[in-house]
Amino acid sequence: MLDRYPTVFIKPDKGSRGRGIIRVELRQDGVYEVCHESTCKQVNKESLMDEITDMIRPSRSYNIQQGIDLADYKGRPFDIRVFMQKPKNDWQISGKVIRVAARGQFLTNYHKGGKAATLERVFSRVLGDKDEVLQTQQAIDQISYATAKVLDARFPGIRQLGLDIALDKADRLWILEVNTSPAYYTFRKLRDKSMYREIRKNRRYIKKVYGGR
């Protein structure tokens, strides 16, 4: 993967809150920077695999993912969490929120110091043009509904999805991850609590009618 992409992420197949994620980046000087939790180390190519092996757990499965050159908001990378629910027959987007990484961090998770912001606030600064902001939001919605349709056909029992979508510096959208048991505490950090309340209401209904979490 590093022969094709300068940055890759090694993620636990099952996990949450950004725990256990390793970032490997090939710098211009030929040195690899390996970041895990809050620590980064520089190693040469010969030592790279030993360094990564020390960080992973043999009992866990991992995915290797291409690194995306994320757009930034005030110098900090961000991504978009889309919370989708299917309380009855149709999927709906119950909430969308921007997760902005803490200063000096590469993960946007709230438990890694990330902050919540509205799409309108961030996109108006990053994209500027109102038409481009609207088109990007519409594209996010289209991606989200298309993803839900595909996964619903494959796994008919799912009722909730959390999509993590990235905007890169060329204004392209990427799906980073899809979670079938998504957390929603980030929405509680917004001043407007309407999306948080909508998610909670639907979660209670889904649990009452269909069981599960």
Task: Describe the 3D structure.
This protein has about 210 residues and is α+β, with helices and mostly antiparallel strands. It has 2 domains: about 5-65; about 70-210, ATP-grasp fold, B domain (D-amino Acid Aminotransferase, Chain A, domain 1, 2-Layer Sandwich), CATH 3.30.470. It has helices spanning about 45-55, 120-125, 130-155, 185-190, 195-210; strands at about 5-10, 20-25, 30-35, 40-45, 60-65, 70-75, 75-85, 90-100, 115, 160-165, 175-180. A hairpin with a 6-residue loop joins β7 and β8. It starts with 6 loop residues before the first strand and ends with a helix. It comes from Polycladomyces abyssicola. It holds the Pfam family ATPgrasp_YheCD. This is YheC/YheD family protein.
Show unreliable segments: none
CATH topological fold name of the largest domain = D-amino Acid Aminotransferase, Chain A, domain 1
CATH superfamily of the largest domain: ATP-grasp fold, B domain
Radius of gyration: 18 Å
Q: Which oligomeric state applies? A: single chain
Termini Cα gap: 36 Å
Q: Please provide the ordered H/E string of secondary-structure elements.
A: EEEEHEEEEEHHEEHH
Q: Count of DSSP helices?
A: 5
- Overall pLDDT score: 92
Please give the largest β-sheet: 6 strands, antiparallel
